[in-house]
Amino acid sequence: MRLPLLLATALLALTASSSAAPRASTAIPSSTHAHTAGSPARQKEKPAIVPVVILDSPGGTIATFQTFYRELKRSHVPVRVRGWCVSACTMVLHLPRWEVCVEPTAVLGFHMASVNGIPDQALTVSWIRREYPPAVQKWFVKYAMQAIPVFVGADEMVKRGWVRPCTPLNQ
């Protein structure tokens, strides 16, 4: 498990000094590609909380993403979803709505949880009740209770009230 590196990257934003812009490029849970981003000019003004940017993530184990998002929630590091966020990565919706935003290129992919490669309806229902807000739970049960991922784009996520759209990083 690559969790220490993952958490170090995510928590980099908490320890960013005003003298240097944080820069990181690492794999978040599984093979998620993410980086931290921020405005160097803004960082000179005061220490900045630099967001974690999800570029592309095929997902991974529920336990790994639970740990990752729990640490982000504790640290209040904002998250920007810029690319694909599939499977357990979608648990990003468990974070407070004001700490997560989606860029126009964001896509979430939902599917049933599985055990040893076999979709498990009971596990999925239990999991979505714990990890998603009520509006997402209702949608998931209606549209995504299947082994093949169902994808939702940024506009649809914002329209449904699941997340907010991102503002430019330099504002």
Broad CATH class: Alpha Beta
Strand runs, count? 10
Backbone CA Rg:
16 Å
What's the N-to-C terminus distance? 36 Å
- CATH-defined topology: 2-enoyl-CoA Hydratase, Chain A, domain 1
Number of helices: 6
Total count of domains: 1
Strand-pairing-aware structural class: alpha/beta
Instruction: Spell the H/E element sequence.
Output: HEEHEHEEEEEHHEHE
Q: What is the helix fraction of residues, given as a range?
A: 25-40%
The backbone outline, from C-alpha atoms, is: globular
Name given to the CATH architecture: Alpha-Beta Complex
Strand content bin: 15-25%
The low-confidence runs, each spanning 5 or more residues with pLDDT under 50, are 1-28, 30-43
The main pleated sheet reads as: 8 strands, mixed
Average residue-wise pLDDT: 78
Could you outline the blueprint of secondary structure elements for this entry?
Elements (H helix, E strand, L loop, with lengths): L2 H9 L13 E4 L3 E5 L3 H6 L6 E6 L4 H14 L3 E8 L13 E3 L4 E4 L3 E2 L2 E2 L1 H11 L2 H10 L6 E4 H6 L4 E2 L6
Helix pairs in contact: 1-3
Question: What does the model show?
Answer:
With 171 residues, the chain is an alpha/beta fold. It has a single domain (3-165), classed as 2-enoyl-CoA Hydratase, Chain A, domain 1 (Alpha-Beta Complex). Helix content is 33%, strand content 23%. Strands 1, 2, 3, 4, 5, 6, 9 and 10 form an 8-stranded mixed β-sheet that branches. The protein has a two-stranded antiparallel ribbon with strand order 7-8. The longest helix is centred in the middle third of the chain and has 14 residues, at 62-75.
